[in-house]
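Operator note (shift B, R.M.): manual run for Helicase-associated domain-containing protein requested after the automated queue skipped it. Running by hand, logging everything below so the morning shift can see what happened. Input copied straight from the record, untouched. If output looks odd, do not overwrite the archive copy; leave it for review.
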Amino acid sequence: KNRVKRLNKVDFEWDCSPQDRSQTKRYKSSRGINSSTGKSWNHELWEQRYKELLCFVKDNGHARVPKISRKSTSSALGNWADRQRRNFKKFQNGTSCVLTENQVQLLNKVGFVWACPVKLWDKSYEELVIFSKENGHARVPWKFPPNLSLGNWVRKQRVSYKLFLKGDSSSTLTEHRIHLLTKVGFEWDCFGQTWTKFYDELVSFVTESGHALVPSKFPPNPRLGVWVSTQRRNYKKFLKGDPSSSMTEDRIQLLKKIGFKWAITSEC
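Run finished. Output pasted below as returned.
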């Protein structure tokens, strides 16, 4: 029983393919193991993970569980969510799987996303790129009648960006995604509050270091490193007259005032 618990802890799948199931049955028979033990534990584990999902939804307002570091206690939930998606494909195809119709309904009830979140993000990003090309900027209104889901998506990116800057692991953004969004002129902060916050941090850096050359990878404050790189990219767009740039004359003057370098040989 202790071994079963240890296997369940790493989300071991007791139910498998027909071929493997046949071999497992023969093995259990030869060892005198009750064939219902695995299924019983598997069902209990599913209910346990589902309860964890309910807590996640309550805390985050959605059921898009991210895959995070195995060092985190929530990594098992992320792995479990991925497994539900794989099993759902089998369920839809009518092939043998451990997911039941009742479980599908329970997951639908909490807004579980069956498609891979990465693919959904890429799809919305492509829609944003098209919007940017057609309108000359990436400022999608929150309520955008032609594509309401896109308006909602850009709002969520801003929320995730704030979480990213705080170092919150629940953020769905990565440095690569931030780079992609900045590339099309995405505005992270409509009201300028975040910009001001990081400008103040840059001023503190200048006071302590005597210069404004914050490395793009700056361990003491990695978010500040990302921010200064973003300012340089937006400045280049500003000089080209690109309307998608969030840089303004006022911001340029503020940065110049503290000796900010718009171009550097290399960013470490």
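Quick read of the result: The two ends are 52 Å apart (CA to CA). The CA atoms of residues 46 and 80 lie 9 Å apart.
Leaving this for review. - R.M.
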